[in-house]
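Thread: Newbie trying to understand structure tokens

Hi all, I'm a second-year student working on a class project, and my supervisor (Dr. K.) asked me to get a predicted structure for one chain before our next meeting. I've only ever worked with sequences, so writing a 3D structure as a token string is new to me. If someone could post the tokens and maybe explain what I'm looking at, I'd be very grateful. Here's the chain:
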Amino acid sequence: MRKTCKVIVEYKTPFSNPLIIKKGESLIIEEKKSEWPGWIWCINKQNISGWVPTNYLKIQGKNCLALQDYDATELTVSIGEELYFEKLESGWIWAFNKEGKKGWVPFENVKIVE
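---
Reply by user tm_fold:
Sure, no problem. This is what the structure looks like when written as tokens:
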């Protein structure tokens, strides 16, 4: 079910080239600290890296296999902006704005209004 929320803290994505993976794709895990539990830093064969939810992966040592398609795009948002979201994952929401731009936003940066 789609929910509406308002941005209460702006967020600017630090990543200009997001990791996009397909189910069955092999990735390499790199040790990287995160303030967000449930996410792991992965690198694909094209050397593009990004955070991936651990429950989207089958982890095998320093390698992993994607259990589903995944897009690591993060959405830059401004205070007061209205977003729509359907998915909450480990402290982040997958959302889209009125212009149709999609991406991940920290859940703590929004307030549900509907």
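A couple of things are worth pointing out once you decode it. The two ends are 11 Å apart (CA to CA). The chain has a mean pLDDT of 95. Feel free to ask follow-ups in this thread.
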